[in-house]
Design goal:
about 190 residues, alpha+beta, Nucleotide Exchange Factor Grpe, Chain A, domain 2, 3 domains, about 15% strand, elongated
Length: about 190
């Protein structure tokens, strides 16, 4: 081999080695840039996560406050609807001493009662109709039984205290007197 050829081969080997080193350096630089970019993305995602967690805590606190206020002031609209009825009662009581005619007082009280029942009806409160109907444990509470041949056994004869439902739920059972079952045995 000639001297020139040897020098060329040596130069080629040197070039190959330096190319490999520069490739490694380039790869290291790219890796470092990737790591920096990924660290930046992780930082941004952590920041977003912390913000979302804080937003959720604020939302949770707000809804808890709203629910507490709802429970605390749930009857407010109902009470506001009852206030005019109370005003009517107060006006009526103010005129009772002056009234000459008891029928006028009765009519006034009847109007106030009707107004109150209308408010209850609008709110979903309804009277349980019991007299003449069969006894039903879901709506009635029997206080006593009384014999009555004019109706079927277990029929409501009399209401002692009115019962009410609120949106299809019994809030107070009607206290009733119920007809007894006719006994076939003669009484001694």
């Amino acid at each position: 081999m000639s001297k020139e050829k040897k020098v060329k081969e040596k130069n080629i080997k040197e070039v190959d080695i330096t190319d490999e080193e520069s490739v490694e350096e380039t790869n290291e630089i790219k890796l470092e840039e990737n790591v920096k970019q990924l660290e930046q993305e992780v930082g941004e995602l952590k920041d977003k996560l912390l913000r979302k967690a804080a937003e959720f805590e604020n939302y949770k606190r707000r809804t808890e406050n709203d629910q507490m206020n709802l429970l605390t002031f749930a009857a407010e609209s109902f009470i506001q609807k009852l206030l005019p009825v109370i005003d009517d009662f107060e006006r009526s009581l103010g005129h009772v001493d002056e009234a000459q005619d008891i029928t006028a007082i009765k009519q006034g009280l009847k109007l106030i009662y009707d107004k109150l029942m209308k408010v209850f009806d609008e709110q979903g409160v309804k009277k349980i109709e019991a007299v003449g109907n069969p006894f039903d444990v879901d709506y009635h509470e029997a206080l006593m039984q009384r014999p009555d041949d004019s109706v079927e056994p277990h029929t409501v004869l009399e209401e002692m205290e009115k019962g009410y439902t609120y949106k299809d739920k019994v809030i107070r059972h009607t206290k009733v007197v119920v007809s007894e079952e006719k006994s076939s045995e003669p009484k001694e």
